[in-house]
Amino acid sequence: MPSCRTAWSLSSSLRAPENEALPDIIKGMLSSHEPTTHPFQTDDSRLQPIQEKVLAGTRLDASDALALYRTGDILAVGWMANLVRERMHGDKTYFNVNRHINPTNVCVAACRLCAFGRKKDAPGAYTMALEEAFETAASGYSEAVTEFHIVGGLHPDLPFQYFLDLCSGLKQRFPQVHVKAFTMVEVAYLARRAKLSIRETLAQLKASGVDSLPGGGAEIFADRVRHIICDHKIDGDQWLETAKLAHQLGLKSNATMLYGHVENDEDRVDHLMKLRALQDETGGFQTFIPLAFHPDNTPLQHLPKTTGMLDIKQIAVSRLVLDNFPHIKSYWQMMTAKIAQISLRFGADDMDGTVIEEKIYHDAGATTPQGMRRQELERLIRAAGRVPIERDTLYRQVTRTETSVTVAV
Ligand code: SF4
Fold first, then answer.
1. Which of 109, 158, 205, 353 could join 162 via S-S bond, C-beta 3.0 to 4.6 A?
2. Which among 141, 167, 158, 217 has a CA at the least distance from the CA of 193?
3. What tens digit of pLDDT does each residue of 113-132 get?
4. What number is the average pLDDT over the span 393-402?
């Protein structure tokens, strides 16, 4: 046995740390759940001091994050991420019942990462009339959704009023459904088109019915990478500044990272560190969602797809580094249901949902179904030894009967 291999006493080392090292946002989430797991073992000496920090609840730094990306010992990284996940959530695994609405795929940007956006007169370009969007919201599902997830292209002609009317119209028709709408990139573009400040744009969107923002468009913050994959988008600092303003206005948001293209380990670490720093400041992020790059039908289709090893590791590193993010989501639509299921033992506590009609990743070659039935999602979660919990967008538990949907407050 290698000299660095270490076994830890379960009773003394796996409990939540009793010191004050963890951020406030996380302290309330610590679970009395006592993990039943095997001892920590590794042959990689770089992981020993990291494991000691994780046990003590001490924040990891950039060099720790880099070591986690570079080790081949995925099981040791997973052991640590699972420990943190179980401290925070026990066996609970969240999902929601949502409907995606992509009002237009017309986009002035030409991001090389994208298979969704089209020029206005290109084949396949579409823009929904408002009534069409409302019909889309109402159709195609057999149970009540609790969330509309709305993102689309940067349309050069649609007025800001269209988006305000879209949100207020949805609220009028479906007052009980949470409207999670518009990435920071879309918000910044709408502000430019409407000649408003970002703050005013967000305020008007909120007044029209937007309840929170999704996390898309963050991609990778590093300029070098952005120039290659999404040169026409706002830069990383602008994305972070827009998120900060949203949080200041009381709008929660998520955050994403698109990985598996031309970024390197340092770029990923930089991205995580910037998100963590903003979360320290605002506390407005709910969930971090690593998104595996799908190259099909994009100008980057010569790049290989991500591997299962990278997908799983990305989830685990995110859980360990983003100690102030309540939730880490394994988005089954992008990762496949099987990888997402395994990731529930590697740090993830959320599987997104019974998404209805997802377009963006399917245009980029995702071969997963466009939606998944609740029973199947629950089965996958239970088969991973976890407990499925339906949540709304704000992570309040949803209880359903044949005739009612109740959200715990
Ligand atoms: S990623 Fe978004 S902004 Fe970029 S081209 Fe696609 S739809 Fe447009």
1. 158
2. 158
3. 998 999 999 999 999 999 99
4. 88
Cα–Cα distance for residue pair 17/6, rounded to 1 Å? 19
For a substitution probing ligand 1, which of 233, 300, 360, 362 has the most ligand atoms within 8 Å of its CB? 233
CA distance to 61, 334, 351, 393, per residue, from 386 (Å): 30, 21, 12, 20
Q: Which residues of 302-331 are buried (b: 16+ CB within 10 A; e: fewer)?
A: eeeebeeebbbbbbbbbbbbbbbbbbbbbb
Region of 154 (left: φ > 0; alpha: ψ -120 to 50; beta: rest) is: beta
Question: What gap in Å lies between CA 276 and CA 323, rounded to an integer?
Answer: 8
Kindly give the distance from the C-alpha atom of residue 225 to the centroid of ligand 1, in angstroms, as a whole number: 15
1 versus 149: the higher-pLDDT residue is 149
Contacts of 242 (CB under 8 A, 6+ apart): 184, 187, 188, 198, 202, 234
How is residue 31 written in tokens? 């679970």
Measure the CA–CA gap between 328 and 307, rounded to whole angstroms.
19
Task: Work out whether the CA dihedral 248, 253, 259, 261 comes out positive or negative.
Answer: negative
Q: What angle do CA 229, 234, 238 make, to 5 degrees?
A: 130
* Bigger pLDDT: 373 vs 176: 176
One-letter amino acid for residue 159 of the chain? P
Verify whether ligand 1 is closer than 6 Å to residue 335 (CB atom).
no
